Structures are given as structure tokens and as C-alpha cells.
Amino acid sequence: MASFGASALLVFALPGSPMAQPLAVIAGNTLSALVGISVLHLVGEPLLALPLAATLSILGMFILRCLHPPAAAVSLIVVLSHAMHYRYAFFPVMIDSVLLILAGAAYSNLTGKIYPNRPSR
Question: Is the overall model pTM greater than 0.90, yes or no?
């Protein structure tokens, strides 16, 4: 998944960003994959499905407060690759997102950075 490069940049280089937190990465990527698959099932034409999938995935992330910009590309990748099975949202997308978060947490622990950030009270 090409968009995971951008996700990795956020997690490793900007661990303090709200868009690099575990909920944003995991839920944002998974939600976008589910939206892309659903749109592909409903709208068979890729030229219509692409903007609809991107728009709906951004809207969904905004509503669920898990905004992760690279995740919008996940919905586009799903449509362009014709990933019609919902299991694609869980493997590889969700599993790879979890692995990325674990690697980011390990890296941050080794380098003395705080990740994930705890919300202030």
C-alpha cells in the first residue's frame, strides 16, 4: 500500500501529531478501505467511484474524529485495484496499520520520544 509510506512518515517523524496517533492511523485506514470497497460495490464505474470514495472516507474520518490524511488514498487504492472483498480492509490494511503503530511505538521508546500521546485533561 503506497499510502503507508505517508502514514509511516507521520508516525516516525511527527509522533506528536494528532493525525499520527494509533486511533487515527488504524481507524482512518480501515474505515477508508471499507468505504472504498462499499463504493466500488455500489458504483461500478471507477471514474465516479474514485471521488465518491475519497470524499466519503474523509467525511467518515472527520465524523469519527480519526482524521489521517494518507487514509484518503487508501480508498482510492481500493477502487483502482478493484479490491472487492471486505476482508481486504482487515488484512492487509488494518493488520498493517497495527504493525506500523507497534513499530512506531518501539522506535519512539528506543529514541526517548513519547508515543502515543496521551490526551491532556
Answer: yes
Q: Does 120 map to a domain?
A: no
- Dmax over CA atoms of the chain, in Å, equals 48
Mean pLDDT confidence for 50-78: 97
Q: Work out the burial of residue 13: count CB atoms within 10 Å of its CB; fewer than 13 is exposed, 13-18 middle, 19 or more buried.
A: exposed
Residue at 121 is within a domain: no
pLDDT, position 31: 98
How many residues does the structure list for the chain? 121
Cell of 102: 507497534
> What was the pLDDT predicted at 60?
98
85 belongs to a structural domain: yes
Determine, yes or no, domain membership for 13.
yes
Q: Is 82 left (phi over 0), alpha (psi -120 to 50) or beta?
A: left
The pair phi, psi for residue 106, each rounded to 5°, is -65, -45
